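Ticket #4471: structure output looks truncated?

Reporter: J.K.
Steps to reproduce: submitted the chain below (418 residues) through the standard prediction queue, then opened the result file.
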Amino acid sequence: MRILIKNTETDHSKKDILIEGNKITRIEEHIDTPVDKVIDGTRKAVVPGMFNGHTHAAMTLMRGYADDMPLMPWLEEKIWPLEAKLTEEDVYWGAKLACLEMIKTGTTTMVDMYHHFPATANAVDEMGIRCMITHAGFDFGKPDMVENYKKTVQSQLEKMAGYSDRINYALGPHAIYTVSADLLKWVADFARHNGLNIHTHLSETKGEVEDALKNFGMRPVHYLKKDGLLGPNLSLAHCLYLDDDEIKILADNGCQVVHNPASNLKLASGNKFRSADLKKAGVTVCLGTDGTCSGNNLDMYETMKLAALTGKVAWNDPTMWSAEETFAIATETVETVTGIKAGKIEEGYLADLSLVNLNVPEMTPNFNLISNLVYSANGNVVDTVICDGKVLMENRKVPGEEEIMEKAAQAAFNLVRR
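Returned output as attached by the reporter:
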């Protein structure tokens, strides 16, 4: 498939972009060559697809179900009991709804942690985006759950050959308060021997850190280090309560940290994310939406704005989280975390990109495209989405979107009734 995007805007210069197969092959002022499809980019800007570094896709079914609660009561009294009733069919439609929402708001890659792995994998495969899927791991110190998780992971990994190469498998131990040291050590070894990534939650609340000190005699990062999890294949969601030593350890081990401003704010987990200190130490910082039960949407444009504004006010520094830095964090970090060559509009990179409508009030005037995207826009400015060289949305229409919303809503209400 050869796609030619004509007359699109890149940094106030108009360019043509040629996509051949799944890669960007030429970016020039004028390209005249036979193609299968021409897309008019007039009054549209081309930008990389967004990277959602942490979410729980099928939790779209729980959007608005359990609002305005502290984290642990929210999990223990509302979320976990409802999740115990989830079927594979539920997760399939919830994940399809999540993919639809991400396509509509310009996200082409996500890192997902949830249950019923095949359902999410099938949904992502059909919808056409990329995903590093982790099977959420819990054992609560119970030996039978440890063995069950091991068998499940091994079985799922064997089935990966049946999915598109847009889907990568990773390990997802939920958190140090839900996963035993024995299972964490097994995850570290299994990931190392099979070349897999690991994704987990860490230091999301003050209580988590206090409990780690009480139960393990050490802070969370030290606990993961003891269990052998730290390395460049590890990404950590939240990390709101790191001390200087922990930041240095993460940097020394090449770990990545995913900031989730919407859920952090809504759950009142904290707002003083140490981005400047992490950056100075050399830790890659990414952005995520978290699940829609805690952040309520999957719009990475809104996430960029929240990260930038809360970062400035938390540290009383208007120079922090500049628009350019924030945009790069939301796009280019996909390569560091997942290893895929995406996140930039450059020749040789994967054709994972969006066309943004400039002919709308919030993008006018266009003194600075990146500033408008971070501070002014939301995902509704996205007009066209291409992932892996295939058009997933054009003129803000995704094939089958009405059915997906209808089926997902039915699944959500049936789940709550159960």
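Triage note (M.O.): checked the attachment and the full token line is present. The chain has a mean pLDDT of 96.
Status: closed, working as intended.
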